[in-house]
Amino acid sequence: MVKDSAMVNARLAEHSLAPLNNICTDFSDGTALIHLLEIIGDASLGRFNHNPRMRIQKVENVNMALDFIRSRNISLTNIGAEDIVDSNHKLILGMIWIIILRFTIEDINEEGLSAMDGLLLWCQRKTAPYKEVDVQNFSYSWQDGLAFCALIHRHRPDLLDFHALDKRDARGNMALAFEVAERHLGIAQLLDVEDVVDAAKPDERSVMTYVAQYFHAFSSLSKAETAGRRLGKFSDVMQSVYDMQHDYEARVGRLIAAVQAQQGEWRRTHFEAVYASARGLSDAFNKYKVTTKRTWTDEKIELDTLLGNIQTKRVTYNLAPFVPKPGFTPHDLEAAWTELAASEVRHRKAINQYIRESRDILQRNYGAEANAIRAVLSGISAELAALSGELSVQLATVDGLISRAKPVEASLRRLAELERQCTAANIDEHDYTVYSVEDLDYDSAMVTKALQKKARFIENQSAVRNMTNLTPAQLEEFEATFRYFDRDGSNVLNDVEFRAALDSLGHLFSDDEFASLYDQLSCGSEYITFEVYIRFMVELTEDQTTPEQLLQSFRVIAGEKEYVTEGDLRMSELSSPSIAYLVKAMPKSEISADGFDYLAYLRGVFQR
Questions:
Q1: What average pLDDT does this structure show over 311-327?
Q2: Which of 45, 274, 343, 478 has the most CB atoms around it within 10 Å of its CB?
Q3: Per residue in 453-469, pLDDT tens?
Q4: For the CA atoms of the chain, what is the radius of gyration?
């Protein structure tokens, strides 16, 4: 229980007033009560009777004191001046407790909380670094004395060593705290050790009243801490604002520098009227728009937001608006951004111009190459069509035309590469030619084939020109047969083709005979030439083949009929190609629907 007289005497001693011996009787004339109220209320109550002898004077003094108490909005229930004058112990002690409690803690304010809650929060904040202390109330939390020791150590670590305390010695810790507080801090010992340690539940008002003395004793230190916190908070705010401002200017500087560097790169770009190069620049610019430009756009928006946050924060703390350094202002950033947009338009326009020029050059190059190829092929075709004169001259001319046609293949490859470039440039139609690669490739193949045929024809004609002992019809028949079985147009016959040709002409040989004959004519190679073929046919015809012999052969195969059927031919030793040739060459018989008139065929061959 708080020692009321000790509390009162401690406050009276602050103004060198005599201590009270008995708080109940010494308050009866009202003078001590007025002195106490003037001290703890920090106000003068006015004139009063300093040496009252009559009851009425004492009542007046006490009423003055009670009126002052009530003026501070302190409610006193069921207590009057007569109760104090008559030394009513219970009412006087209640009044003293109300006065002490109200005037002791009413000015306490901590983090927006006042009175008891503020005092409790203050105790919690001060003892937070001490893990053995957990202040939750003004009763049980103080029974081990550690909370009192922690408050002293927190503010005056030179007065006691908290960490050296025996945390289990509650009495020793409590006594030490009371002694140090009274001796070094001027805090009167309003409590006895046993009032706190031994109580089942220490009196909250008593503990709170005593703890309040610690609050007031350390108020000057607390004010310094508050000032420090305030200054620290302000410093933190200023540091935060500075960091934001510095970050803003640095980022603006980097963004402007990056934008200007990009424009410089565009200005240094070397443009070529080559589609691949122009297309590469276009692709790079498109990539820039969806990567770098978007990153810069995001950064610019964030910078605008950051600047707004800086200005808002400065307004919140009543600071002057932020003005970035020259070169880093919003105007500077906006000017750089505007110039970037103009540079983008110029760069895009230049790229598009060179794309158009390169596309036109591509079309011109393609057209020139295609038209040149067409001109070469047309010239060769015209000369080939006009070919005449001696066979040797014609053959030499054809050889020359073949030589002129060879470079066309390389020209077609160049044209195909130009076509590929045109396709890559999305050129679907050509403005300078009507010829496609496919057209010219086909025409070139046809011209080459015509030249080869012409060359073979002249060579063949040269081979047969001196063979005058055969009729022209016979020579033509031999030549037509050769061409028919020369399926690939190579102007040579392999063994299968040669035997089919002989069969079709009615010259039948056994396998061994043919093998020996073919080996002799081919000289061991895999084919025989037209010249070898025609010479052999001339020799064979002159020695063996006569119209009568052929007629006799047909009659044997036809079974003496005046017509021969495809079935008759298949019953003979003729090969399939020979049968196919004869069926195609012989006219239909007039007396048999499935027969062929071999007499008319032979007349046509030998009587032209």
A1: 92
A2: 478
A3: 888 777 777 766 655 45
A4: 65
Q: Please list, in sequence order, all residues whose beta carbon lies within 8 angstroms of the beta carbon of residue 232, skipping any fewer than 6 positions away.
A: none
3-state secondary structure of 97: helix
- Evaluate whether 600 touches 464 at the Cβ level (below 8 Å): no
Spatial separation of the C-alpha atoms in residues 216 and 240, rounded to whole Å: 34
What are the backbone angles phi and psi of residue 273, rounded to the nearest 5°? -80, 50
| Residue of 255, 456, 260 whose CA lies nearest to 343 | 260
DSSP 439-494: HHHHHHHHHHHHHHHHHHHHHHHHHHTT-TTS-HHHHHHHHHHHHHH-TT--SEE-
Query: If you average pLDDT over every residue of the chain, what do you get?
Result: 86
- 109 DSSP β-pair partners: 114
- Return the closest-CA partner of residue 460 out of 545, 532, 387, 527: 532
Comparing CA positions, the residue from 227, 185, 212, 187 lying closest to residue 106 is 212
pTM: 0.45
CB within 8 A of 430, min separation 6: which ones? 363, 366, 367, 370, 422
DSSP summary character for residue 113: E
- 311, 235 contact by CB (below 8 A): no
d(CA 557, CA 569): 7
| Region of poorest pLDDT, from 231-235, 316-320, 355-359, 588-592 | 231-235
Output the pLDDT for position 302.
96
Can you tell me whether residue 587 is helix, strand or coil?
coil
pLDDT at 216 over 50: yes
Cα angle: 597, vertex 603, 608; to 5 degrees: 140
Q: How far apart are CA 173 and CA 190, in angstroms?
A: 16
C-alpha–C-alpha distance, residues 500 and 194, integer Å? 141
Q: List C-alpha distances in Å: 84 to 5, 35, 43, 94.
A: 15, 15, 22, 11
CA pair distance 359, 230, nearest whole angstrom: 73
Torsion angle of C-alpha atoms 503, 509, 514, 517, degrees rounded to 10? -100
Amino acid at 1: M
Residues 6+ apart with CB under 8 A from 477: 505, 605
**Up-side HSE of residue 149: CA atoms within 13 Å toward CB?**
23
Question: Structure tokens of 399?
Answer: 């050889």
| The pLDDT of residue 1 | 43
Contacts 24+ apart (CB under 8 A), 335-339: 336/255, 336/256, 336/259, 336/260, 337/259, 337/300, 339/259, 339/263
Confidence of residue 487 (pLDDT cuts 50, 70, 90): confident
